[in-house]
Amino acid sequence: MIIKIDARKLAVSEVETLDQVQHERAARRLGDLETPCLILDADRMDRNIVRLRERLAPLGVSLRPHLKTAKSIEVARRVMATREGPATVSTLREARLFANAGVRDIIYAVGIAPWKLAKVIELRRQGVDLAVVLDTVEQAQAVAATSRETGLAIPALIEIDCDGHRSGVLPNDRDRLVAIGRALIDGGELRGVLTHAGGSYAARGDEALRRCAEEERHAAVAAATILRDAGLPCPVVSVGSTPTAHRAGDLSGVTEVRAGVFVFFDLVMAGIGICQIDDIAISVLATVIGHQREKGWILVDAGWMAMSQDRGTSRQEVNQGYGVVCDSRGRLFDNIILADANQEHGIIKVRPGSGATLPELKIGERVRILPNHACATGAQHRSYHVVRSASDLVEGEWQRFGGWY
């Protein structure tokens, strides 16, 4: 017997599962949760969202949040301007699941591979305005060819390299920009240009961050000017990173800003100076499972499988190990860090040279660990357990998703 499965119904049911509203497990306490698990302080998250919106409003640009950090329908609905977007994603799975939840204005902000265009067309046929990103003539030709074959013009943005951090076309490479644009409009749609100042993560101090923001803006606007002068359309000029979004002083010529980790922040952002540790909205709840008193260790059940192996602060002035440690209500211990980790064991120590003392934590006691990198730590977990400020009441559980397709 052959069983036929309706893929569209399956996709819808998948979103309904992901979008299980927080009432299923309401009225629990932090002490009732199995550990390790991911905690989201909704009050901190809401403040972080409002802060960036209010900062960008007088600069005359819209916010297109990058949902790769949250990977959650519930969080997306709080950070987007409307339930339909605009939004940025980093995987086609994100695009599909957010689209199934009603998001209609999406940029897939990773260089497009030709084989993925069939999936792009599938979403566009469902009424989703999904745009792709590219930086070569070959990609533009593939987009144009697929557009002609299907009768659906795929919109694309040309990625600009504003700081040598990653991919993209140099903003003054007129020949390459124009060649890509012309190849694209032979069936596809040139939507605009897009850049990301990834180099801003290495900047220190407000002045350096402002320079990164201006270099990002200038590169995108210069590339847009080249395209327009060549008679090509360029309605969208898209820039963004969390550091530059918070330090840009002038966004003339820019139409939208993308940022993602600002929703939660993390220790890397705190080390750059974009936020305070008290702004970090996610943490990993862990249980004390042992002591090595002669070594000055407290062992917890959150290792690198719960925290991720990202130790981005090791390149900053203050090395935060795998994360900084708080009590179960989120109150920071003085100079106590998750200094080392195995797969399922975390080792809490006093920060070297600080002169602090290890807290008295009993077996079974709970702690919360603030992460180096919110995106990487979040990716280790399937859901957020939602609390507010210092309350231990778990208001709900919001599902996360991972994967690429």
Give a brief rundown of this model.
The chain has 405 residues and is α/β, with parallel strands linked by helices. Helix content is 30%, strand content 25%.
CATH superfamily of the largest domain: Alanine racemase
The CA-CA distance between the termini, in Å, is: 28 Å
From the spread of the alpha carbons, the general shape counts as elongated
Largest sheet: 8 strands, parallel
Give the CATH topology of the largest domain: TIM Barrel
CATH class identity of the largest domain: Alpha Beta
Q: How are strands sequenced across the largest beta sheet? A: 3-10-9-8-7-6-5-4
Would you mind describing this structure in some detail?
The model is unreliable at 1-26 (pLDDT under 50). This protein folds into 2 domains: 29-38 and 273-399, Lyase, Ornithine Decarboxylase, Chain A, domain 1, CATH 2.40.37; 104-259, Alanine racemase (TIM Barrel). It has 12 helices and 19 strands. The protein has an 8-stranded parallel β-sheet with strand order 3-10-9-8-7-6-5-4. Strands 11-12-15-14-13-16 form a 6-stranded antiparallel barrel. Strands 1-18 form a two-stranded antiparallel ribbon. The radius of gyration is 23 Å and the shape is elongated. Helix content is 30%, strand content 25%. With 405 residues, it is of the alpha/beta class. Helix 1 crosses helix 4 and helix 6 packs parallel to helix 7. Keywords: Lyase.
